[in-house]
Specification:
This protein is mostly helical. The chain contains 16 helices and 6 strands. It has 2 domains: about 150 residues, no CATH class; about 325 residues, Serine Threonine Protein Phosphatase 5, Tetratricopeptide repeat (Alpha Horseshoe). This is mRNA export factor GLE1.
Length: about 650
Amino acid sequence: MGAVKLELRCPQNENGIIAADPEPDWSFEALVSELNSLELKLNSSSIFPIPFTKTESRGLSNVKKGPTAFVMRVSDDEMEDVEREGGVEGVYDRSLVAGSRFACDELYLSDSDDESNLHDQFHLMDKAGVAEGAFFELTHEHQLAVKEEVRTQISVLETDLTHERKKSTSAIVRVEKYIEARREMDRKLDIQYQRNIAEALDNHMTAVQRDHEHRSQIEERRIRNEAAFEEARKEKALQEEKLRQEKAKAEAKVRLELAAKKRAEEAKIAALEDERRAAKEAAEREGIGASTRAATEVAPKEATGHQRDASLGILNAQLNGSKTDGTKKAQSAGNILKSAESALKLEQERLQKYKEFDEKTQALGQSSNKDFQRHEQQFARRIRQISGSKENVRTKGNALIKMFNDPLCPQPINVAIFVKKVVSYFEVDQPSKVTYACGHVIVFVASQVPYAMDLLLAELHRVCIYTVPKHIDYSKSAFKSKEDYYKMIGYREENGKIERTEDYLKRLACYMKLYAALVQTEADGVKNPHGLKEGWAWLARFLNALPANVYTAVALEVFLQVAGFALFRKYRSQFRKILKVISGNFLVALKAQGEKVKEPKLKQVIGNIQYYVEKNEFLQEPEGWRMQGSLLSGSMAPELDYPDSYHHPSNYSGSYHYSSYY
């Protein structure tokens, strides 16, 4: 049987007195239960059989207990010593015994000094006192151990509970701080969000107000422009009426003078005829020799020459002095010139400058007595070397300006040579890139020599009347023959024969190609004195004044193919209106004429113009239009307002007569 050591936690001997558990208040049931468990523990811990194993209950279950469960008694020897020292009464003094009494109601102890009673008492002490005391000590020690263990566990639990409480409190504090921080952050974010919303709303309202103000300004500007344009139109109409009246008076005066001059020429011719006849008769009568006859033969030739000059003067008076209403349409059979009044005026001014300049150059040439053939060859070579690149245009332009300033040859002669060589170079068809490049060279030269542009335009007007634009109708009363009419409109005579219409139309297209390339040229840093504004004016004058025939159709087709892209980039919707006029009026009249005159060239031109309008070819950049190095201005943009005084296309009313200043 293994040993089980049971010890009391309190001192077992205090001043010679056996001490018990300071808290001995055990119930009887608890004590029995503890003893049973102790016995079971002892039996289970033994590795050998125990001969005195308890098989029955102690039989103390019916023993009644008093107010206290147990009273520790001292031994007989100690009692004797106590009786000798202090008497029997001292044994029962509770103050000297630290413990609780154990009452046994089943035993009767007599107060007498009978020996038998004392013997029973000792027998009881021997029988149950030692075992019970040991058991009590073991029980008490176990109880103390259990209590100590309970106290330890309670202390540990209290410590853990305190620690957990502190951790919980700390966690709660942290959570509360986090919640407060989140609330503060949410409050700040909410304030920032509200501020952003307020700023965005303020910016939006500012933008809306600014846009409203901008639209208001645009509308006010448009109203002012319309009012100014209407005022200018009224003033222009008054000026046109005044000019028309003055022109009518001047034309009436010119007609009177021409009639008087015609009568004087007729009288002079009659007088010359009379003189010729008289001289011939006198020579025949008097037998005048060969010298006299030769003189009489010269007279008729001179008379015939005067007569031709008179007839040409009459035709020019009809062409230049016929009555116009701004569009120069025919009012009678005698009015054969079709052109805008302003176009004829500009043509006369340019031709007058050209005539004066030509006289000046002839005088210089005669006075210098030099041969300028080498200069002509140099100019022709420079012009032929022009190609469609920016560097080439700059180089050739500088070279031409340098030749203009050559001290060996006067500048007017150089300019005259340049003008004639340029125009003659484009008598045959040239590549589109060369034509556009040549337009840039001409604009560059004109920026250095301003009068060169007017001379070039005058030369184009001389060789091609459709660059004015103008057209001359055939009239038997004005022309002796068809050949004279063809010469008047620009046909050439070769070997006594008039060239074919096909060749004439090819040359006409080449001249118009050069003119269209010139008017659409917009060069960086150089202002074109005859630019897109003049191109738009040419188109308006053309549609308002010229009839629809094969000549005008070819001129219009070439002009649109070359300059239409640039005109659309600048005028946009207004250019589309011009195309509607061409499609709805000019082509209709052209088709009606094509049905009467079966001419293949006319049908081909009609198809080309109709295809150009319907397929919107003006949206496509022509080949060679954009030079290498981007010399063409990229800043051209459509204009919403047209302050130019020459024309405002918004007055289009759908009729063939397109509203124009010209």
